[in-house]
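Researcher: I'm preparing a figure for a lab meeting and need a structural model of a single chain. I don't have an experimental structure, so a prediction will have to do for now. The sequence is pasted below. Please return the structure as tokens so I can convert it later.
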Amino acid sequence: MATVSKFKTPGHGEDRNPGMPFSLDAVEDIHVNLSAVERRASTLGGRRTVKKEYQAAWLLKAISCIDLTTLSGDDTAGRVKRLCAKARQPVRPDILEALGMSERGLTTGAVCVYHTMVETAVEALAGSGIPVAAVSTGFPAGLTPLDLRLREIEASVAAGATEIDIVITRGHVLTGNWKALYDEVKAFREACGDAHMKAILGTGDLVTLRNVAKASIIAMMAGADFIKTSTGKESVNATLPVSLVMIRAIRDYQDRTGCKIGYKPAGGISTAKDVLNYQIMMKEELGLDWLQPDLFRIGASSLLGDIERQLEHYVTGRYSADFRHPMA
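Model: Understood. Here is the structure written out token by token.
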């Protein structure tokens, strides 16, 4: 079958976004054609998608880009340990063997947890090469005092998190206070130290696609290594139109600086068909580099179970019950 060349999440290496000086002109010049964005996004779901062994290969690649996530009020150390075990072995061994993938070291891209579970996840993933990502800065609202948000980042990095998912103050976007947003994200970036920073924009709260585009550019200017749609707690999370606007902002930033920024859609991506649409968009808009886990992540929990179910269907020709594909 057609397969991708590697599945292990690469170490991020030394490539970081150094950011750039604040430029209000660059933000004010941004415009978004809503009807064109919606028209382009609508073509993805209506076209014929990849099939058979090619679909299986794309779905295996998607697994390597998943930030396997648990962000619930009833999280326990036991739940996080089970999730980490699933990240190490995301697909049942018999399915991998049938696909000829037993020796390829397939894992998820990361495990994402609250700060209190970072040490538990780091211990459970020791030796696997799977990074631990911590949501931070008063997730999900991001409205705690700034000094507390900075200390939370520092605490998670000290506990072993190598990726930090910060949330911006959406009020800065809604009031057009772009310099305040820049300064905030830049301070978060400095607090992250060597840890990679994903900036969550909370796009469902930003009202317009133009605001989404502007917030994306500001976050990248301030040093974000990834931009991410949502916390998963908003009423509207990742959508294809929002994603198109954000990844074109990534393309514009690369044209301006030569720096490649990662993208993470999160919230509401729960089926294999959903994730294929996002992968196709990434390939068509940014190229093959953005199908790798160092530049593309998917924030999800239930998605992995559906992908595993689709892979079993490819192998056996039959759909199995959901309980055969537990998350932990």
